[in-house]
From TrEMBL, chains A, B:
InterPro entries xref list: GAF-like_dom_sf, HTH_MetabolicPath_Reg, Tscrpt_reg_IclR_C, Tscrpt_reg_IclR_N, WH-like_DNA-bd_sf, WH_DNA-bd_sf
Keyword Coiled coil applies: no
One GO MF term attached to the UniProt entry: DNA-binding transcription factor activity
IclR-ED domain span: 64-247
PANTHER family reported for this sequence: HELIX-TURN-HELIX TRANSCRIPTIONAL REGULATOR, ICLR FAMILY, HTH-TYPE TRANSCRIPTIONAL REPRESSOR ALLR
One BP term from GO: negative regulation of DNA-templated transcription
UniProt keyword list: DNA-binding, Transcription, Transcription regulation
Domain HTH iclR-type stretches: 1-63
Protein name (database record): IclR family transcriptional regulator
Naturally occurring in which organism (per UniProt): Streptomyces aurantiogriseus
UniProt KW Transcription regulation keyword: yes
Amino acid sequence: MKSVTRSLRILEAVAQHQPVTVGELTKLFGLPKSTVQRTLVTLNEAGWLRANRSDTTRWEIGARVLAVRPAALQGSSLFAAAREPMTLLRDTLNETIHLSVPDALQCMVVVDRVDCDHAVRTYHAIGDTSPLHATATGHAVLAHLPKSEVDEFTAGTLEGYGAETITDPAELRAELQRVRDRGYAVNHNQYLQGVCAIAAPVLDGDGVPLAAVAVSLPDSRFEPGRLAELGRLVTGTAAEITARHLR
Amino acid sequence: MKSVTRSLRILEAVAQHQPVTVGELTKLFGLPKSTVQRTLVTLNEAGWLRANRSDTTRWEIGARVLAVRPAALQGSSLFAAAREPMTLLRDTLNETIHLSVPDALQCMVVVDRVDCDHAVRTYHAIGDTSPLHATATGHAVLAHLPKSEVDEFTAGTLEGYGAETITDPAELRAELQRVRDRGYAVNHNQYLQGVCAIAAPVLDGDGVPLAAVAVSLPDSRFEPGRLAELGRLVTGTAAEITARHLR
DNA sequence: CACGGCGTTCCACATTCCGGCATAAGACCT
DNA sequence: AGGTCTTATGCCGGAATGTGGAACGCCGTG
């Protein structure tokens, strides 16, 4: 359904660039003005957009988006299962713990967070997105997907964010094998500089990855000698969430 | 754009009934199975839905909504304009302050909240919805809409939630006139029992209501003698937000 | 005053989506 | 086990639906 897909794309673009005009969106997508215009009007009538008439008509996201809440926020089984183990892990390490889920193989989205109380700490807001190929949570998820889906993913370009980012598909596949072998993924400066993260996947009954838990901390507090210990703890937490989720 | 409108309807239905099956949705909409199925697959590919395979395929809202959510809040100029005046009002009264916007004349949606520090307090999460005809914020908005839109709204049934709910269109119109006269709306047990709220509208340059600010407090702390004072403060806060928003 | 940029509207064409039908796979009762 | 009901998924011809080029009207500018 072409028009539906495009409408949602436009909706997301409005969210990113609001308040935005028709012209800006046509340039962004390279679509005819009339098509974009019609889409905006339709989304507006449906209540998902708001027209903001000051000088020229600018479009903003409507309140409807807030009313449609993902299962993650409504106490879905996964969310509920994760809260306690995450808090426990935070108490053990006093480092920030994140729960992220894959979004249609395009990015990881942070759905929950338990903070540490250090003055210096990493910060990712709930709803923040990050690339699959350059984060620990992304690797944890990719490592447990069937080969065909990983191939499909690596078919696209792997953007680089720094010297450490893995941009070569073959190298990524090798890294994913290491992740499977030791049970957890490690990210050091692949995406955000100065941040280190260790992540393990939460799987459903069939072994399909649903999410990943990660401990993330500033470079300055990361002791390489403790990596195995951290990995064991994170893997244990992920296993506990998986177990609670299945019941 | 029929298919787009329908897709969004289905998306909203999934949000309300998740996790839901294709069959349940076809019954809900009276549409052919194949149509609903195709729509679900498309929304899934776009990342707005997730398939949850346990016994039968059940559908849930996907993580994509989380990525768009922050934009719905922070992006709007209204949000920024409201934060400080709301905090000021909370400091003055030490009661919880809410900012709500109308969603396509169907409900009010809470977009921001500043908490008081009483042990006993009212609680509405960001994203919570409530009926227009049974809340102070709803009345504040309705009172400043053109007569034609109010008529359109009252054409539907006004559901009752308790003895105090106004379910008669004529009575509602009279109440809206009182709201206009004194500048603020009052709600006492019309929707949620034991809760009292006083609200005033935020208008745009043309007098169209964009939102409403409300102070809401438990019955036990509401002193009828202070109503005029509370009303004056809430109205003042709304006026301040309106002024800041216009600049 | 003419011009250019912008948002909005119109309309004929053909692409896209609709929805009936058929198949397949479980689930549940007998 | 066998049979029946419900549910999920795939297919395909026809027609409604969405497409996008072009024209319109509005405003600020040179």
